[in-house]
Amino acid sequence: HNMHHLHVLLFHSADQQDFTRGPIVRQLLIFMLPILLSQLLQQFYTIADTALIGQALGAEALAAVGTASLILSVCINFFIGFSAGLSVLVSHLYGEKDYTRLSALVQSIFVTVLAFAVCLTAAGILLTPQLLAALSTPAELIPTASTYLRITLGGMLAQLLYNTASAILRALGNTTSALHYLAAAVVLNIALDILLLFIIPGAALATVAAQYAAALLTLRKILHLHGAWQFRLARPFFVPKHLAPILGTSIPAGLQAVFMSISSLVIQTYINTFGYAAMAGMTVYARIEGFLYYPLFAFGIALTSFIGQNVGAHDIARVRAGLGTSLRLAAFGAMGMALIAG
Fold it and tell me: Quick check: bond before 236 cis, omega within 30?
């Protein structure tokens, strides 16, 4: 019995973590660093395409891929924010130890996300030429950019599933499993990029294949959790009363993340009028700029799950202490990064 108890405890610490007790700064940093790495790795999908296409196919192809990637990065940021909102709901019920409602919520989240992904993908594929035209993309680049964008939009479902599944794992205090799967997917993406390099559709297909690999591995993890809560499929698959809280927390969080990207789109629209060289340069700059604000973004997401669990456990004093600590760390972190970049 003791051995079984020890076995459960070991798996509990790996798969699920209780953030309602223990040192706050250490917990926030343990939480934040894997989130930061996963954000940087998600950007590596497009960085890999950017570097290899720029080398092999020149500035014109790089400009086309860069413009399409900007539209995709708005979607990625929306999904990361969207999933952070879901993390709050899941961490709240996990903190309350209401495991039956938690399973029903997680099922309803996946049904909502599937419907969302299908609608977004269809809209994106139909509106691709209009989106590229709205960004003042030179007419001769639109066919190449359209091909790349339409294929990578096929990975929209994988992106949403991966971000949703990793948000659920994060809410349980597991920040590392999804990161390992994403790292493997990035390696796969780079390997496929090299194999399929000499055509732009090849680079796009490599990215989509890697995204589905990360999504399927993360979903498999949720179905095989060890610890206080195991996910169990039950009927009904969708509980309508969960829809309002799911959309009410996830969409505002997603839009908040998108507003950071919209300014980049506005700038890109003006840059695109200067031709391929300027577009290619802006593509490279946008990749570097992301590295500066991702640590702060990751910290915000880490804090949402920390607060969610503690609100669920009704420990408001710990929520206040965590918030104060986070604001200080974020302020000093932002100043440090600005000085390094300057």
Answer: yes
The rounded Cα 240 to chain-centroid distance in angstroms is 25
Asked whether the predicted pLDDT for residue 56 surpasses 60, the reply is yes
The alpha carbon of residue 322 and the mean position of all alpha carbons in its chain are separated, in whole angstroms, by 23
**Among candidate residues 254, 339, 257, 342, the one with its CA nearest the CA of residue 294:** 257
Residue with tokens 């009704």: 314
| Distance, CA of 165 to CA of 221 (rounded, Å) | 9
CA distance 296 to 288: 15
H or E, element range at 12: helix 2-15
Half-sphere exposure of 29 (CA within 13 A, CB side): 8
CB-CB neighbours of 325 under 10 Å: 17
Residue 110 CA: distances (Å) to CA of 103, 181, 193: 11, 19, 30
Query: Of the given ranges (22-26, 90-94, 243-247, 261-265), which has the lowest mean pLDDT?
Result: 261-265
Between CA 153 and CA 342 the distance in angstroms is 35
223: its two tokens: 């179905």
What's the angle, vertex CA 113, arms to CA 108 and CA 119, rounded to 5? Answer: 135
Q: pTM for the full model?
A: 0.76
Contact yes or no for 60/141 (Cβ under 8 A): yes
Half-sphere exposure of 33 (CA within 13 A, CB side): 6
Q: What is the pLDDT of residue 231?
A: 78
Contacts of 44 (CB under 8 A, 6+ apart): 186, 189
Cβ(227)–Cβ(12) under 8 Å?
yes
How far, in Å, CA of 150 to CA of 121, rounded? 9
- Six token digits for residue 6: 């020890």
With beta carbons less than 8 A apart as the criterion, state whether 124 and 153 touch. yes
Element of type H or E holding 154: none
Indicate if the pLDDT at residue 297 is higher than 80. Answer: no
How far apart CA 67 and CA 109 sit, in angstroms, is 31
